[in-house]
Write a structure and sequence with these properties.
Blueprint: E1 5-6, E2 9-10, H1 13-21, H2 47-65, E3 72-79, E4 85-94, H3 99-115, E5 119-121, E6 129-136, E7 139-148, E8 153-159, E9 163-164, H4 167-174
Antiparallel strand pairs: 1-2, 3-4, 4-8, 4-9, 5-6, 6-7, 7-8
């Protein structure tokens, strides 16, 4: 084993020379600090009306894409693209959907979403799903619409564009998700 290899990682020339000259020293090189997320520079907005609007948008999408059922709803705040922003997610889940119906909803969704201004991608392998996004004020708004055949589960998750709320308020809203 050469002197400039430690735990399978090659040291840079400076630290290799130090290691050769001082084999009794243990050298630990830490990774650089991750860059701090910048602030949006935008004034903070109220999250409650925004969350209501996102839930209404998700209800409209579900009515267009699925047109039936009483799905379970899960809503939460997640970190946004800047240190003073958050994103809002709304996930609707419907169980006991037949494979024929679930896959049919996915097929029908592509042209409907494109017509509504979404950029749509349908991966050719893996779980049947559609990923779509469209530009927003602070990052893209995204939609994940999929079907889990083994569980007969249809789901849709709408993730909002970033909402500037201020650094402290963002931390309060996302809680443990930070």
């Amino acid at each position: 084993m050469s002197d400039d290899v430690n735990d399978g990682r090659t040291l840079d020339p400076f630290w290799s020379a130090v290691r050769r000259r001082h084999p009794d020293l243990d050298i630990v090189i830490l990774p650089p600090e991750p860059p701090r997320r910048a602030s949006s520079g935008q004034p903070g907005r109220a999250p409650e009306p925004f969350a209501r609007m996102q839930q209404e948008d998700m209800d409209e999408l579900w009515a267009i894409l699925v047109r039936h059922g009483m799905p379970r709803r899960d809503v939460r705040w997640i970190p946004g693209p800047t240190s003073d922003s958050v994103r809002h997610t709304v996930t609707l889940t419907l169980d006991e959907v037949s494979t024929t119906a679930g896959l049919g909803h996915l097929r029908e969704a592509v042209p409907l979403l494109k017509k509504d201004g979404w950029k749509v991608f349908s991966p050719p392998t893996g779980m049947p799903r559609i990923m779509a996004d469209r530009p927003g004020e602070l990052g893209d708004e995204s939609l994940l619409f999929g079907y889990v055949p083994e569980q007969r589960r249809l789901f849709a998750r709408l993730t909002s564009t970033g909402l500037p709320v201020g650094g402290r308020r963002a931390l309060d809203l996302i809680g443990d998700a930070a």
